[in-house]
Design brief:
The strands form two sheets. Strands 3, 4, 5, 6, 7, 8, 9, 10, 11 and 12 form a ten-stranded antiparallel sheet that branches. The chain has a two-stranded antiparallel sheet with strand order 1-2. 0% of the residues lie in helices and 44% in strands. Strand 10 and strand 11 form a beta hairpin. With 180 residues, it is mainly β.
């Protein structure tokens, strides 16, 4: 229970400031770790749009390098304890994600995702994979145009913000042509 010395350098400053940090252990409260899945939303079977974010491969902080390749939302189809995740992709600085694997955050390798939609230049617009239902971070391995290595990332799906997608009634989205 001693003071901890801190030396801080502020943006644009040419000097360090000093401070002391005091942790009041007498007021400390033990936090309980939730059981895996205890605090999950647990979506029912259906199709959802879910906001996503891309973190560094360790799951610590937003990845400014990999985030620009991904659309803002993922499409997630939940069925019988599985989920199929569709990730919309976009070009970033003339580069595309040319390979994508998924697996456990911090793992050594992943399973190849499927390129489910491409444009006329063969760039992948949507990567898709099916896995057991989880609301944990999902590890990603990305290969980009011109790169000879994989970069790692962690996919965060914000299940609390999931919006169920409505399935159109048969014929509801048809164009009815008249004789003529």
């Amino acid at each position: 229970e001693e003071l901890i010395g801190l030396w801080l350098t502020k943006t644009g400053a040419s000097y360090e400031s000093t401070a002391a940090l005091f942790l009041d252990f007498a007021q400390a409260e033990e936090m309980e770790e939730p059981e895996p899945g205890e605090d999950w939303v647990n979506l029912t079977d259906g199709t959802y749009e879910i906001p996503l974010d891309i973190y560094y491969g360790t799951g610590s902080g937003q990845s400014t390098i990999n985030r620009p390749f991904f659309e803002e939302q993922a499409k997630v189809e939940v069925s019988e304890g599985k989920m199929t995740v569709s990730l919309g992709m976009k070009e970033n600085g003339g580069k595309w994600v040319t390979g994508l694997k998924y697996g456990t955050v911090g793992g050594s390798s992943g399973t190849a995702a499927e390129a489910s939609e491409k444009d006329e230049s063969d760039n992948v617009l949507t990567w898709q994979f099916t896995t057991d239902y989880t609301e944990e971070l999902i590890g990603l391995w990305l290969t980009k145009t011109g790169a000879s290595y994989e970069s790692t990332a962690a996919l965060f799906l914000d299940f609390a913000q999931a919006k169920e997608m409505e399935e159109p009634e048969p014929g509801e989205d048809w164009v009815n042509l008249t004789d003529g």
